[in-house]
Design brief:
Length: 422
């Protein structure tokens, strides 16, 4: 692991700073929006704009890279992010904020494609899994650290937006100074949605629900904290605890995933999540209990995406895994766009606890669908199950393709060994 970090430390440092900036702006907008706009529903449109841009960027960024190169795309998109971040407090208008969020989402998606391409290019086959794991940990540490940065200034002022902008700008220095232009990463065209649904209904529905869960949790948790009257320090701790739970439980759930029927684990995870979030809606002002709920929510939601990808890979032929990844990313992105909007509607109708009610409804729906699929389709026995590889919901298609390469490799080795034995 130390060898992996030593080889790509500058790139990881840049990603860490980039995620601090991104994490700061996400939480900061949720807090600042409460004083600028009338309702959580308005903020839900602002939050959703990021995922609209992110989905568009994940599909268009590879084409931009092919036309002008990694370095130019990286520098151009990074400059746009820095500029957009300082414009939020200058023009506190809902429509303008939505536009800025779309721009930032698009740019971050493109930046991730470039950074992850360099990361992939600097990884050998035997270290790719460890490299991806370290990358996910660095991402989560960046978002967690960002929450502490919120206590450096007043969310109603300019300073925090400037800090986020500076961090994003500075993050490009170690990356651009430590890498050479990476070769263009060729990604397989996405599998058709109809074919994926026919092969793995649970993979398709699960990806949609996970996108809806993650975006609702990530985007609207600071809005929820503001609505119930938490201080900035409490909101930052609340959001950080969600990501701490996700970081600590990614690997235990991955360990279980490689040793049992993954549908049982999806059912258990979503069922527990439904109960935990219902419990969260019944809390009566205990901040300590709220932190426990936040930890459990992060622990249960964050590993689900990797779990669904691993389950879908078990069903697919190795040759179909790469193309299925693109389709899963698209479905997850569509779900992510609707997540904040649905949370905002629930909070408008029910009140702040609509945040938890929404998460509970989506989790229970996925649990029910998983149970249904288990009743109509027997467990699939595979000689070599796909390896559970941690992937973040904010990762670009490049990171997901890296995870697919890791999953495919043992199966291809087994095929080669079987062929040699014959």
């Amino acid at each position: 692991m130390l060898t992996v970090v030593r080889n790509v430390w500058a790139l990881l440092l840049g990603i860490f700073l980039l995620m601090i900036g991104n994490g700061m702006h996400g939480t900061l907008l949720g807090v600042r929006g409460a004083s600028e706009f009338e309702s959580a529903a308005t903020m839900s449109w602002v939050i959703s704009g990021y995922f609209v841009g992110f989905l568009g960027g994940s599909r268009l960024a590879p084409e931009l890279i092919r036309r002008v190169g990694h370095v130019r795309v990286f520098a151009a998109l990074g400059s746009l992010i820095s500029a957009a971040l300082v414009l939020f407090p200058v023009f506190p208008n809902a429509l303008f904020w939505i536009f800025l969020r779309v721009v930032i989402g698009f740019c971050f998606s493109g930046v991730y494609v470039v950074a992850e391409s360099w990361l992939n290019d600097n990884s050998a086959n035997e270290t790719r899994g460890k490299t991806l794991s370290v990358y996910i940990i660095v991402q989560l540490l960046g978002v967690i650290s960002a929450q502490a940065m919120l206590n450096l200034g007043d969310p109603g002022g300019y300073l925090l937006f400037v800090i986020a902008s500076v961090l994003v700008s500075v993050s490009f220095a170690p990356i651009l100074l430590s890498v050479s232009p990476a070769p263009i990463t060729e990604m397989a065209p996405p599998m058709s949605l109809r074919r994926l649904i026919r092969i793995s209904p649970l993979g398709a529905v699960g990806s949609f629900c996970i996108g809806a869960l993650f975006s609702g949790m990530w985007g609207m948790s600071p809005v929820y904290g503001t609505e119930i009257g938490l201080s900035v320090a409490q909101i930052s701790l609340f959001v950080a605890t969600i990501y701490i739970g996700g970081m600590l439980c990614q690997f235990p759930i991955g360990w279980l995933s490689d040793r049992m029927d993954r549908r049982h684990l999806v059912l258990a995870t979503t069922g527990i999540l439904a109960v935990v979030t219902v419990t969260g809606s019944m809390l009566s002002g205990s901040f300590e209990l709220l932190l426990l709920i936040a930890f459990l929510i992060g622990a249960l939601i964050n590993p689900l995406y990797s779990l669904i990808i691993a389950f879908t890979n078990d069903i697919l032929d190795p040759g179909d895994m790469a193309s299925a990844a693109g389709c899963l990313i698209f479905i997850q992105g569509v779900g992510a766009i609707g997540g904040p909007l649905a949370v905002g509607l629930c909070m408008l109708v029910i009140g702040p606890n609509g945040f938890f009610i929404y998460l509970s409804i989506v989790a229970a729906s996925l649990a029910a669908f998983t149970l249904y699929r288990m009743s109509v389709r027997a467990a699939i026995t595979v000689d070599q199950p796909a390896i559970f590889t941690p992937v973040s919901q904010t990762s670009s298609p490049v990171a997901v393709d890296m995870a697919q390469e890791i999953a495919i490799e043992p199966q291809l080795q087994n095929s080669d060994e079987a062929g040699s034995g014959a």
